[in-house]
């Protein structure tokens, strides 16, 4: 039998990452991103957005992160997707909704696609606490990048050693869209034609 464990040194230059970042509280998320990039770069990943290894997706806030992360994972382009956001309790009565939906959605994106999707949404009571986690004391962005490197490598090893149907989760998560029915049709469109609008 075997022990499977991700490592941080096995050809990181061959890995591809998608990073989804919430603009809300960008004072914090920008710093998380900088920490994340620093870690990836120092492990040999080319972080240039015009290069071949990392794509960046900016979204309005943490609530939107999961949807974009799921689409990115479904593309099969990435070995891991890293989600960066900051939800601060003091700023909103709907903290629990935004944080809860982000957590649930990000977990679902990972389960449904079989692609590691790293939960890098910082949830704190105050801006001060968030900033402490985004560079003032330590930078969790660095840790999230480590998590992504480890999981990407672990999944690579597992795909190599175990028989995992590569696209089963994707097909389950993304069944072929049904033909439009009467209610979905645009004026003049017949059943069976795909909506272009
Ligand atoms: N989004 C965040 O990322 N962090 C927050 O603290 C936050 N607050 O405070 O409301 C927040 N709200 C925006 C939300 O993520 C969506 O972008 C918005 O509701 C539109 O869907």
Automatic annotation (TrEMBL):
The active site is at 94 (proton donor). (2S)-2-hydroxy-3-oxobutyl phosphate binds at residues 91-92, 133. Keywords: Riboflavin biosynthesis, Transferase. InterPro entries: LS, LS/RS, LS/RS_sf. Pathway: Cofactor biosynthesis; riboflavin biosynthesis; riboflavin from 2-hydroxy-3-oxobutyl phosphate and 5-amino-6-(D-ribitylamino)uracil: step 1/2. SUPFAM superfamilies: Lumazine synthase. Its EC number is 2.5.1.78. Catalyzes the formation of 6,7-dimethyl-8-ribityllumazine by condensation of 5-amino-6-(D-ribitylamino)uracil with 3,4-dihydroxy-2-butanone 4-phosphate. This is the penultimate step in the biosynthesis of riboflavin. This is 6,7-dimethyl-8-ribityllumazine synthase. It comes from Spirulina subsalsa FACHB-351.
């Amino acid at each position: 039998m075997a022990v499977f464990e991700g490592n941080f040194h096995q050809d990181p230059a061959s890995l591809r990452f998608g990073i989804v970042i919430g603009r809300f509280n960008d004072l914090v998320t920008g710093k998380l991103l900088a920490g994340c990039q620093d870690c990836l770069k120092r492990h040999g990943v080319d972080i240039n957005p015009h290069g071949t290894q990392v794509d960046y997706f900016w979204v309005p806030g943490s609530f939107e992160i999961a949807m974009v992360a799921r689409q990115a994972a479904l593309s099969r382009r990435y070995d891991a997707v890293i989600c960066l956001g900051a939800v601060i309790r003091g700023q909103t009565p709907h903290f629990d909704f935004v944080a809860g939906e982000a957590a649930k959605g990000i977990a679902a994106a990972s389960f449904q696609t079989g692609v590691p999707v790293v939960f890098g949404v910082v949830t704190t009571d105050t801006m001060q606490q968030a900033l402490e986690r985004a560079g003032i004391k330590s930078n969790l962005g660095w840790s999230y990048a480590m998590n992504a490197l480890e999981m990407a490598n672990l999944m690579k090893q597992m795909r190599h050693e175990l028989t995992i149907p590569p696209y089963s989760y994707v097909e389950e998560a993304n069944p072929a869209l049904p033909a439009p029915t009467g209610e979905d049709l645009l004026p003049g469109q017949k059943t069976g034609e795909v909506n272009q609008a």
